[in-house]
Amino acid sequence: MGSLLVGGLVFLFLSMATSIGLIVRGRLPDHHLNAESKDAIRLATAVVGTLSALALGLLIASAKSTYDNAEVEMRTAAARVLLLDRVMAQYGPETDKARQLLRELIEKRLSRGWTAETTDEPSAKALGEYQDIEAVQADLRSLTPKDAAQSSLQARALEVGGMVAETHWLLVESGKEGLPWAFLTVLVCWLALLFATFGLQAPTNPTVLSILLVCALSVAGAIFLISDMANPYVGLVHVSDAPLQSAIERLGKP
Fold it and tell me: Among 59, 60, 66, which residue's Cα sits nearest to residue 176?
């Protein structure tokens, strides 16, 4: 589900909860909303409000951590690709084919996007990314070193190639994690209860209604950010591919 859709649904849900509170307020007897009743409602909702704030803070921290880790992974992947290319360049012209395959792999990654499905999805003209990585590794294993220096470079290239492959499979596995939907659903229910009590206690005038809608929009915006940052390679708030763009300019150079 898209992050904007999630945020929009949360805003709609909270607005409906507020409206229900306003409708119920107009139908309750006056003694149900006297000072003592409102004090009891405020005490009860304070507990839910505290829990909601803690849960929202945990979700934001988790999403930010996921986003920061993805940024580090992107820079690390670009550095490893460059290192692999330089090691192959030092080996000699025998690695020209493998270096070209490596460049094509990065170009494909930049054109296809960042989800696990798009990187591994084969098409009529292109293999999945994991097959491209394995093709580079196969070319490296087929080399016949002429001396100890080339043997050392071959071993180093295979080591770094394994790291590049490992980075790919980490992306595939982490791409399946996503948001803790059960946790998010409970949080939204708590928030809906809070906004319903706001509508239950609030006087019906344009100023109060406007403030409640702005608050609902603010909470929905926070949920949107959580959803978007939990999927750091897609969406409006996504990890920049600048490190790989910079790397591809250096690939293949002597």
Answer: 66
Residue ranges, the chain, pLDDT below 70: 1, 113-130, 172-178
pTM of the model: 0.76
Which residue, 40, 20, 14, 38, is CA-closest to 201? 38
For the stretch 117-152, what's the b/e string if a residue is b when 16 or more beta carbons lie within 10 angstroms of its beta carbon?
ebbbeeeeeebbbeebbebbbebbeebeeeeeebee
